[in-house]
Amino acid sequence: MNQSGLEQPVSLDRNALLKEKVARFEELKKRHDAGEEGLIDELRELHTSVERLRGDHTKEAGE
After folding, report:
1. Angle at 55 between CA 49 and CA 58, to 5 degrees
2. pLDDT tens, the chain, 63 aa long
3. I need a surface site. Which of 1, 51, 57, 60 has the fewest CB within 10 A?
4. Are 60 and 9 in contact (CB under 8 A)?
5. Whole-number Å distance between alpha carbons of 23 and 44
6. Measured on CA atoms in the order 31, 34, 40, 44, is the torsion positive or negative?
7. CA neighbor of 49 nearest in space, from 62, 23, 7, 9
């Protein structure tokens, strides 16, 4: 893998975004465990955003 200065910020940004997604998931799980209902739309949105991040990663790896 190329160690150019341009590549590292992208990885750091992706890691930061993934950490945000994990924190969001943990928040939703706590709300679910507390008995809150109707979280499916938020979970779907979170899932879609993670899949989008994964797709971006796959595209970069192929370049």
Report:
1. 150
2. 444 454 445 577 888 999 999 999 999 999 999 999 999 999 999 999 999 988 876 665 555
3. 1
4. no
5. 15
6. positive
7. 23
- Torsion angle in degrees (nearest 10) through CA of 33, 35, 41, 47: 0
Question: Is the distance from CB of 19 to CB of 50 less than 8 angstroms?
Answer: no
Question: Can you spell out the DSSP letters for 2-53?
Answer: ---TTHHHHHHHHHHHHHHHHHHHHHHHHHHHTT----HHHHHHHHHHHHHH
Return the number of other C-beta atoms located less than 10 Å from residue 32's C-beta: 15
Taking the C-alpha atoms of residue 51 and residue 46, their distance in angstroms, rounded to an integer, is 9
